[in-house]
Each structure stands twice: as C-alpha cells, then as structure tokens.
Amino acid sequence: MKKNNIILIGFMGVGKGTVARALVNKSGMMAIDTDDIIESMENRKIKKIFELEGEPYFRNLEKKTAKWLAKNVKGTIISTGGGFYKQEKLNEIGKVVYLKSSFQGILDRIHSAPNAANKLKKRPLLQNMEAASKLFDERAPQYEAVADIIVDVEKKDINLIVEEILGQV
Ligand code: S3P
C-alpha cells in the first residue's frame, strides 16, 4: 500500500520541525513529530525520559512509534528525532528525506535562534559538543544510506528547501 508519508530525518538542530511546518503550509498535509508522540505517550519530556530511564528505554519507545506509524499513518509529514533513522524498514513508513548540513552549519543555526539556550538544554545528546561532533561524523553516512532523497539545507532559504522536497517526493 502506498502511504504517501514524508519522513524527515537528520541530525539534532538541523531544522526538521521548521521544515515540517513549512511543508504543512505549502502542501496542505498535516504533520506529526516522533518526539512529540513519545512525550505524549509518556506524559513527560524527552530530557526527563533520558534522565530517569536512560537511552535504551527511549530507543524502545521510538521502535514502538515506528511500528505504529507504519500501521496507522498516511498522507502525513513525519518529523523525527535525530536517532529515529535507525528504525528498521523506515521506507515502509514513507519517503525518507534527509535534511543535510555540516555540523558547523547546525551549530550556527542553533546559536542564531532566539531560544538557543533552550534548544541546547532540552537535548540530552547535545550536552557535550565533542561527543555530539563524534556522533555527527558517525551518523552522517548512515543518514545518507537510508535516505530516498537528500536535500542540502545549509544556509538555504526555507521556501527553496520546501520546493526541492515537494518536487522530488
Ligand atoms: C536524539 C534527537 C532528539 C531526541 C533525543 C535523541 C538523537 O531529537 O529524539 O534527544 O539521538 O539524535 P531532535 O533531533 O529533534 O533534537
């Protein structure tokens, strides 16, 4: 069955939520976010889940979310947490779009946001920049490998990003 979902993957802070909202405006589709689903399921924030239960517990919730999406969601823009791309059979959920940027591009984007401190604080895996940079290097080729479509988003106008995505899905 063709599900017509668009799944946005990419590193923390690359702008998956921002791109999802812009896609909503342009396409008339609705959007959901895997971190939001997990937070509602647990009635607590990602930061708390990591603190109190640890990362493996969180990854298990991502797995549960992936199964639910594959079974129940159609015609939707799905933004994901930065580690969600590891879920098996991602392309059974929809067209996988990798939002690509350099690590420095991501840091610049976060630091230029008005709520930069909050953006950093709420992300457990962005607390240590050396570790985050290593994680980025490890994941970058993996994002590319699972993507159906790769869109370079670094320093690019949001309207252009949206056009490129909608032109390819
Ligand atoms: C994670 C990214 C976060 C969130 C969690 C783990 C990751 O989402 O799912 O903190 O492993 O990269 P964002 O990509 O929206 O920051």
Topology readout:
Elements: E1 6-9, H1 16-27, E2 30-33, H2 34-42, H3 46-53, H4 55-72, E3 76-79, E4 95-100, H5 103-111, H6 116-121, H7 129-146, E5 149-152, H8 158-168
Parallel strand pairs: 1-3, 1-4, 2-3, 4-5
* Rg: 15 Å
- The CATH architecture can be named as 3-Layer(aba) Sandwich
Which CATH class is shown?
Answer: Alpha Beta
- At the fourth level of CATH, the homologous superfamily is P-loop containing nucleotide triphosphate hydrolases
Taken together, the total number of domains comes to 1
Quote the distance from N terminus to C terminus.
16 Å
Using the alpha-carbon principal axes, give the shape. globular
> CATH fold name, please?
Rossmann fold
Overall helicity: 40-55%
Largest β sheet strand count, sense and barrel closure: 5 strands, parallel
| String of helices and strands | EHEHHHEEHHHEH
Main sheet: strand order? 2-3-1-4-5
Ligand roster: shikimate-3-phosphate
The mean pLDDT is 96
Organism: Malaciobacter pacificus
Keywords: Amino-acid biosynthesis, Aromatic amino acid biosynthesis, ATP-binding, Cytoplasm, Kinase, Magnesium, Metal-binding, Nucleotide-binding, Transferase
Catalytic activity: shikimate + ATP = 3-phosphoshikimate + ADP + H(+)
Cofactor: Mg(2+)
Describe the structure.
With 169 residues, the protein is α/β, with parallel strands linked by helices. It has one domain (5-167): P-loop containing nucleotide triphosphate hydrolases (Rossmann fold), CATH 3.40.50.300. It has helices at 16-27, 34-42, 46-53, 55-72, 103-111, 116-121, 129-146, 158-168; strands at residues 6-9, 30-33, 76-79, 95-100, 149-152. The chain binds shikimate-3-phosphate.
